[in-house]
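Subject: for your reference before the review

Hello V.,

The reviewers asked for a structural picture of the protein, and I figured it would be easier to keep everything in one thread rather than splitting it across files. Below is the amino acid sequence we used in the manuscript, unchanged from the supplementary table.
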Amino acid sequence: MILKIANTWADWLVENGASSDDHEIYTYGAECMLNELFSDILLIITAMMFHKTFEMILWMLFFTPLRIHLGGMHASSHLKCMLSSILLSYLCIFSYPLVIEIPASIGIILGVCFFIVYKIAPVVHPNHPVLENRMSQMRMRALVIILIEIILTCIAYECFSKKVAGMATVSLFSVCLLAMMGKFSALYK
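And here is what came back from the structure prediction:
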């Protein structure tokens, strides 16, 4: 379904003056955008059903910026992507209370996250090569984002909400796990 909509959109672009040489690029871009849109809508709807909307929005706010620039493992289909996103988000939503029970764990996890980003950013999918200068931009952005998110997490913990700090911590850790999985799966192929 997503591919059909993406192809229709790419066809429309070409019919309205876009380069036909780039049809595949338009299709892929639309496919990514639609997959993200449908996944986000599904995440919000399921969160509303479980009365976890606040936690889901927090997860998405901390997860998405770093995921975009850090990269990592990708599912082999849109359906697997959506299902794994739901699973990962709920693992985070239901595990963050464990993290805030042990205050030192937040600091340790955030330190591990920074180390992972510093060592492996960015993790680019083998099917989508990126130019070297773009790689260094992605790396720098991933480092800046992880630093900002760690600072925000620390401020939340100290000043207003251990719940926000816990959710932010598990969100960042989930991105780092996907990055490590992507890095190691690329090494062993």
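For the response letter, the relevant points are probably these. Residues 132-160 form the longest helix (29 residues). The helical segments are 2-15, 23-49, 53-70, 78-101, 103-120, 132-160, 162-187.

Happy to draft the paragraph if you're swamped.

O.
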